[in-house]
Amino acid sequence: MKVIKFVISTAICLLLVNGHILAQEQAKKILIEQDVINFAKNYNKISEELEKMNFNFGNENFTSIDDISKAYKNSDLDAVNKVLNKYGISNPDPAKKVMIIGYALIIETFNREIVNNPEIAVYMQMYGGNGDPTAEIRKNVHPADLALVQKHYSKYEALLKE
């Protein structure tokens, strides 16, 4: 399973089902620029190793990004974190950093592909989508983390199209 596609599709599903996907607290900055660069650069290798481990984030209904660590055995997360560390996603909480990158990609893709597309805007209005469907996700992505993903978005465009 492709990690980025899974993260994005899971986040979108959770948004549609829960509406209040993430915690109410203000997000903390957790990414460094090298995390964002290394995840894009090593995405295929990371994805292959996680597939070999048969690890995925499942179909849990997370109410916050911190629920990931509560939902899975520490040994599972430890193994995932080791893979992420191996490919340059720094401590602490490499798995959480990957989720934040995924959420930031959703926000940025929404901004680039949907907000500026009049056909989709009309479709969203027809189905009651007058607000920003990424509003709940935004609450959990620190503006500085979003800015890093925006800065390196071009590194992810090919991966998002796969």
Task: Please characterize this protein's 3D structure.
By secondary structure, the chain is mainly alpha-helical. The chain has 10 helices and no strands.
Q: What string, H for helix and E for strand, traces the elements in order?
A: HHHHHHHHHH
What is the number of E strands?
A: 0
Poorly predicted spans: 10-24
Look at the helices and sheets and give the structural class. Answer: mainly alpha
Query: Radius of gyration from the CA trace?
Result: 15 Å
Query: How large a portion of the residues is in β-strands, by DSSP E?
Result: under 5%
How much helical structure, as a percent, in the residues?
55-70%
General shape: globular
The helix tally amounts to: 10
Largest sheet: none
Ends distance = 12 Å
Mean pLDDT: 76
Structure summarized in a few sentences:
By secondary structure, the chain is an all-alpha fold. It has helices at 3-18, 33-41, 43-52, 67-71, 74-86, 94-115, 118-126, 135-138, 143-151, 154-161.
Task: Provide tags for this entry.
single chain, 162 residues, mainly alpha, globular
Give me the secondary-structure topology:
Elements: H1 3-18, H2 33-41, H3 43-52, H4 67-71, H5 74-86, H6 94-115, H7 118-126, H8 135-138, H9 143-151, H10 154-161
Helix pairs in contact: 1-6, 6-9
